[in-house]
Amino acid sequence: MTTFSAAVQAVSLVALGSLLVYTLALVRMGRLSAHLIVSWIVAELLAIIAVLLWGRLPLMSFTSSLGNRELLVVLAVVSFSFIAYLMLDSLQRISQQSAQITRLAQEFALLRAETTRPALDHALVEPLLNVPDMGVPRTEEANTRQRVSTRRDPGLLAQLALAAWLVLCFVLYVVQGYFTLPAFLHHLLLAAHKQ
Amino acid sequence: MKGLCIVPAHNEAASLATLLDEIRREGFDAVVIDDASTDDTASIAATSGVPVLSLPVNLGIGGAVQTGFLYATRHGYDVVVQVDGDGQHDPAWLHTVVTPIREGRADCVIGSRYLPTCPDTGYRTPLARRLGMRFSTMLLRLATGLHVHDTTSGLRALNRRAFTHAALHYPRDHPEAEALLAFHQSGFRILEVPVAMRPRSAGQSLFTFVRAALYPLRLCVGFIGIITRQRAGGQ
User: Fold this and answer.
1) Contact list, A119 vs chain B (CB under 8 Å)
2) Nearest alpha carbon to residue B182 among B101, B28, B69
3) pTM for this predicted structure
4) What is the ipTM for the molecules in this complex?
């Protein structure tokens, strides 16, 4: 395995290791439910094992004979597949919860209609009618709180940064193959190749 | 036969009172499903003396209609008719769509604007909607062999067997065409009868340009889901 491949392997291990530690930290803080995150942790562990056994995997020994450039493309494809799997898993859970919310909202509407029948004692049903709106917060203060909460969320920023970095790497690699790069970028990539 | 009109409404305060009066004159019960309206839809419906099911969050037309089916199931109705809250569906046609169900000829009756034998020449359908409807008609015919001329009509009647089934399984947004596929897959008989519709008296259509553009893709995905689910259940 070349020195460049070893550098890529080291960076990948650090990134995946950090992701795993961050995931476990979120579970420990109670911001992620443990039972929902099992498949994510399994995927991250499999990715770490795959990177550790980089040199021994048949796919990697094939690509390393082709040169480091193809190795990075394979790495980019594998990274996108990893992210796509995690996103699909999230969407699946969102779909399930969306169906549950629909059902709850319908049952709530039916129950509220039953409790507003004139025959019932109004004093008994009054507390049931005063249910807070589950819609989007309408007050300016609530909206501000919501925006501030998003701005201070390091997880969201980290995810955006990681996604942007991956997209940039992939775009630069494609551009290098088909277009003329500015001189400084060309020298930078050449130096990375030589390593 | 005990009949109920399900009136899903989202911000239809301008047209609702008149519509409910017309329904009452036809001798039908009505229930309004207020889909998280921000205007006086719920209070107007309550003032008219009909039950109001106020959803705390917006579920879309599919979720709102399904809530009406749940209500009909629990209150022992024999036939339900879906009537949009925007006033486009004339309650004068209620008995026309219910008659085939009373006679036992169908489980689901669609009030159709586009039957070749009796098209509604007075109703002008926006181009985007017409294209979407042609697409859904073609897709439904490919999937089932059924030739339904008005797949997106919201004026439809269901017997107890059909709406009890729909209370459990009903698509969320743009459910009309997918619901027909689901009914056909489940063995329900579908029939079209000619009706005439009125232009929208107030409010705004849910069918925006973006929704119209995404509708064919949305429909294909929905159809695939229903067909594959049915096949998996059959195995």
Assistant:
1) none
2) B69
3) 0.70
4) 0.80
